[in-house]
Amino acid sequence: MFTRNTARYIRAFCSNSNASKMAEAIATTLGGVEKASVTELLAAVPELTKYTPAQWNQTHRLLASEGLETEKILSIIGGHPSILVRPTEKIAESLHCWRSCQFGDANMKVLVSAHPYLLDYTNQGQLAQRVAFLHSHFETRKNVYRLFLNAPNLLVDEQRVTEEKITFLMETMRHEVLEVVKSCAFAHDLEHLRCRHTFLERLGLFKPRSLKADPNTPTGNPKLHQITDTSDKRFAVKVAYVTLEEYEVFQELFRREMEQDDHDDWQDEHEAEDEPEEDISNRDTYRKKGR
């Protein structure tokens, strides 16, 4: 009689045997791809076992013909398994879109292998508009490439949302372009940026650079990536020099503060709408006399 452990061992053996056979079949079909690389990928992403060697071959052949190296192709497949059933003409169309951004072919390959879901995107007109918008703020195509690499959500975020972040980072915090594009600040929501900046400012650990200061002169402020791209614990202990608990308390208080500000703004707007026009005119006249 088999014990449970024995049955589990047999199932695991059969599963490993099947995976090994599939890895060998895929590697043989692709040609030039080591079985060990495929085996490792199947173990890391079990979902890939449901796709046939023919589907692997079709996608691999298309990406290879577009100049992508095997390592990057496997990275794309592992990060976005369903690309194996995406029509090859659609993948080719997406690659054409990203090449039209003029980031440079090497950079384009790095970008799509780091974020394979970008290969679902084929709206060239919208992409061109988004690239032009970012280019107008961040000076070079290379900087726009860095922004997409660090925050691929910039492709789909509403322009209004991105503009608010740009204003906060560049005008309120007064960071230089290069520091912004090297960070992942745009991957975070505006509330996250505001909360961390305000915390440091109230602790006296951050002071915006003077508008007249030389951009090359060190400010003594923490680097932007240290402020925005760290865990709450690391930010609290290593950047703000407080405990995690102290920062968590501030987060809750700041959230309430922002909610109250939003409520006050809403109330002011509605009071202005309800106020008779004559009262508004008299009020404005009074203000002018009082200046």
Structural overview:
- The chain is mostly helical and 291 residues long.
- It has 3 domains: 20-85; 97-156, no CATH class; 158-211 and 219-266, Transcription termination factor 3, mitochondrial.
- It has helices at 4-30, 35-44, 53-65, 70-79, 88-99, 105-114, 124-138, 141-150, 159-172, 177-182, 190-202, 224-228, 232-239, 244-274, 277-290.
- Helix 1 (4-30) packs parallel to helix 3 (53-65), helix 4 (70-79) runs parallel beside helix 6 (105-114) and helix 13 crosses helix 14 (244-274).
- Mean pLDDT is 88; it is low at 9-15 and 285-291.
- Belongs to the mTERF family.
- Residues 260-279 have a biased composition (Acidic residues).
- Residues 260-291 are annotated as: Disordered.
- GO terms for molecular function: nucleic acid binding.
Quick structural overview:
This protein is 68% helix and 0% strand. It is an all-alpha fold.
What is the end-to-end distance? 97 Å
For the sheet with most strands, the description reads: none
CATH topology of the largest domain: Transcription termination factor 3, mitochondrial
CATH architecture of the largest domain: Alpha Horseshoe
Q: Nearest-angstrom radius of gyration?
A: 27 Å
The H-level CATH homologous superfamily of the largest domain, spelled out, is: Transcription termination factor 3, mitochondrial
Task: Tally the structural domains.
Answer: 3
Give the quaternary arrangement of the chains. Answer: single chain
Identify low-pLDDT runs: 9-15, 285-291
Compute the average pLDDT: 88
**Amount of beta strand:** under 5%
CATH class of the largest domain: Mainly Alpha
Which word captures the global form?
Answer: elongated
What structural class do you assign from the helix and strand content?
mainly alpha
